UniProtKB/TrEMBL annotation:
Molecular-function GO terms, alphabetical: flavin adenine dinucleotide binding; polyamine oxidase activity
Short name of any one Pfam family annotated for the protein: Amino_oxidase
Name under which the protein is recorded: Polyamine oxidase 1
GO-annotated biological processes: polyamine catabolic process
Length: 495
C-alpha cells in the first residue's frame, strides 16, 4: 500500500484533457503532479488496435475542423508529429444509398429525401427553441412528421447520429474549417498524446501510474485524499478530474462529502453518445472503390440498423476492411450479444446490398465503449439550444476538485480538440486559484507577524485576537503601519 504522499495536483485520467492539463502545469513550474489512469495505457477514448494487418482507431478517428482561417490545435499537433491522415469526403454518401434488394436509390430521390430531412430538422429545432422560450405554446402542433420510409430513416440517422449535424453553425467548422481527415497512421492517433507526455514525463516516470482505478475522493478546504481500488491513498492540494461524463454519471467515483446538488443535477442532465465502429476483414473486396465511393448507406426499416458503411481502401489500400457505424441503442444491443451474432447480422445486410455470393468476413472487431466502466460511452451530446448554465455548472470546480474533458467545452464538446482545449482551460484556471491561494496564505502570514508587533507598539491590545484577525477591518493606512513597525526594524516588504 502506497504511503500518503502530498502532491500539488493529482490528475485522474490520462486522456487528451488530462495529459494536456499536466503538460500546462509542468510548463508553469508545477512539477509535483501525479496522474492516475485506470487503464493500462494512456489515451482514454483515443485508442488504436491492430486488426487485419493495419492499425485501426476504435474511438476517435478523425481530426474534424481543418482548412479554415484559424488552425485547429489538434491538426497542428498532427502536423508536428507527421501523422498520416486521409481526407474524408462525405458529400457523395447520400448518392450511395442501397435498398434491401441491392439497388441504389436514384440520385433525384436521394437528393429530395435529404432536403426533406434537413427541412424537417430545421422546423423541429425551431419548435424546440420556441417551446424552450415559451414564446409559442402551440409549437408541437407545427412539428412535421418524422421519417418513415427506409431511405428517410437512413438519412435521418446520417444527419443526427453520424455527422452530428446541427442547424446552427457548428463552432468547429466555423472556427477551424469544414474539412475532416481520417487518422491512418500505424502509430495511431494516440501518438499525439505520447509526444505531449514525453515533453514532461520521462520513461517509467513514477508520476504516471497506470491500472489505478480511483474509487473515492475525500475533499475539504485543506486538500483532497484520493483512494484507489487497490487500497492506495494519495493526497494533494488539488485534483483535476478528467474522466468522461459517462463515468461521472455511473458513480464509479464516490465523493466525501457528496458533490452539491447543483453539480450532480448538471452531470445527470448531460447526454452521453455511444458510437461504435465495427470492423470487418474480408479475403477480397467486393464493394465499389472509385472516387466518391468511400462511404455508402443501407436503408433499413429499422433506424440505425447497420446504416453507415465505409471502406478502408483509401486509408489502407489492399486491407479489404469495411467499417460499419452504429450508435446508442444499436450500440448497446450489439455490445450485449456475441461478436459472431453481430457478424451474422452484418453479413446479412452486406448480402442484401451486394448479393449472396460475397465471401464471409474472416475477422470482426467490436469495441464496447458503453460496457467499459472506465468510459461508459463515447462523447457528450448537448442539445443545440443548450442552457449555458448547464455547461457552466458541469465545468465549475467544487472546492479543490476541478473538472475537465470534452464535456466541459461549450464550443467543442464531442471533439478531440474540445478535450485538448478544455485541458488547457482547466489547468489555467487551477493555476490562477493556486496563485490566489498562495497570496491568501502570504497575507495571513503577514497578519500573523504584524499583529503582535502592533500590540507591542501599543496600537492594538494583544488580548483581543478576534478583533485583529483581518487587517482590512481597520482603517489603518499602509504608510502608518510602516511607521509603527519601522521602529522595530521590520522591513516594509513584508507588509
Amino acid at each position: 500500500m502506497d504511503s500518503p504522499t502530498r502532491f500539488s495536483v493529482i490528475i485522474v485520467g490520462a486522456g487528451i484533457s488530462g495529459i494536456t492539463a499536466a503538460k500546462v502545469l509542468a510548463e508553469n513550474g508545477v512539477e509535483d503532479v501525479l496522474i492516475l489512469e485506470a487503464a493500462d495505457r494512456i489515451g482514454g477514448r483515443i485508442r488504436k488496435e491492430q486488426f487485419g494487418g493495419v492499425t485501426v482507431e476504435l474511438g476517435a478517428g478523425w481530426i474534424a475542423g481543418v482548412g479554415g482561417k484559424q488552425s485547429n490545435p489538434v491538426w497542428e499537433l498532427a502536423r508536428q508529429s507527421n501523422l498520416r491522415t486521409c481526407f474524408s469526403d462525405y458529400s457523395n454518401a447520400r448518392y450511395n444509398i442501397y435498398d434491401h434488394s441491392g439497388k441504389i436509390f436514384p440520385s433525384g430521390i436521394a437528393a429530395h429525401s435529404y432536403q426533406k430531412a434537413v427541412e424537417s430538422a430545421i422546423q423541429k429545432l425551431r419548435n424546440q427553441e420556441s417551446s424552450s422560450s415559451m414564446s409559442n405554446p402551440d409549437a408541437d402542433a407545427e412539428t412535421p412528421s418524422g421519417p418513415k420510409t427506409p431511405i428517410e430513416l437512413a438519412i435521418d440517422f446520417i444527419l443526427h447520429d453520424f455527422e452530428m449535424a446541427e442547424v446552427e453553425p457548428i463552432s468547429t467548422y466555423v472556427d477551424f474549417g469544414d474539412r475532416e481527415f481520417l487518422v491512418a497512421d500505424e502509430r495511431g492517433y494516440e501518438h499525439l498524446l505520447h509526444n505531449m507526455a514525453a515533453t514532461f514525463l520521462s520513461t517509467s516516470d513514477t508520476r504516471l501510474k497506470l491500472n489505478k482505478v480511483v474509487g473515492e475522493l475525500q475533499h475539504s478546504r485543506n486538500g483532497v485524499s484520493v483512494k484507489t481500488e487497490d487500497g492506495c491513498v494519495y493526497e494533494a492540494n488539488y485534483v483535476i478530474l478528467s474522466v468522461s461524463i459517462g463515468v461521472l454519471q455511473s458513480h464509479l467515483i464516490s465523493f466525501s462529502p457528496p458533490l452539491p446538488r447543483w453539480k450532480t443535477e448538471a452531470i445527470s442532465n448531460c447526454d452521453i453518445m455511444v458510437y461504435t465502429k465495427v470492423f470487418l476483414k474480408f479475403p477480397r473486396k467486393f464493394w465499389p472503390c472509385g472516387p466518391g465511393k468511400e462511404f455508402f448507406i443501407y436503408a433499413h426499416e429499422r433506424r440505425g440498423y447497420y446504416t453507415f458503411w465505409q471502406h478502408m481502401e483509401n486509408a489502407y489500400p489492399g486491407s479489404n476492411i469495411l467499417v460499419v457505424t452504429l450508435t446508442n441503442g444499436e450500440s448497446k444491443r450489439i455490445e450485449a450479444q456475441s461478436d459472431q451474432e453481430t457478424m451474422r447480422e452484418a453479413m446479412e445486410v452486406l448480402r442484401n446490398m451486394f448479393g449472396p455470393d460475397i465471401p464471409d468476413a474472416t475477422d470482426i472487431l467490436v469495441p464496447r465503449w458503453w460496457n467499459n466502466r472506465f468510459q461508459r460511452g463515447s462523447y457528450s451530446n448537448y442539445p443545440i439550444y443548450v442552457n449555458h448554465q448547464l455547461i457552466d455548472d458541469i465545468k465549475a470546480p467544487v472546492g479543490r476538485i476541478f473538472f475537465t474533458g470534452e464535456h466541459t467545452s461549450e464550443k467543442f464538446s464531442g471533439y478531440v480538440h474540445g478535450g485538448y482545449l478544455s485541458g488547457i482551460d482547466t489547468s489555467k484556471a487551477l493555476l490562477e486559484e493556486m496563485r490566489a491561494d498562495k497570496e491568501r496564505k502570504s497575507s495571513e502570514n503577514q497578519s500573523f507577524l504584524i499583529e503582535p508587533l502592533l500590540a507591542l507598539t501599543g496600537t492594538l491590545p494583544l488580548a483581543q485576537p478576534d478583533t485583529v484577525s483581518n487587517l482590512h477591518k481597520f482603517d489603518i493606512p499602509r504608510r502608518q503601519l510602516f511607521l509603527h513597525t519601522s521602529k522595530l526594524g521590520v522591513p516594509e516588504a513584508i507588509l
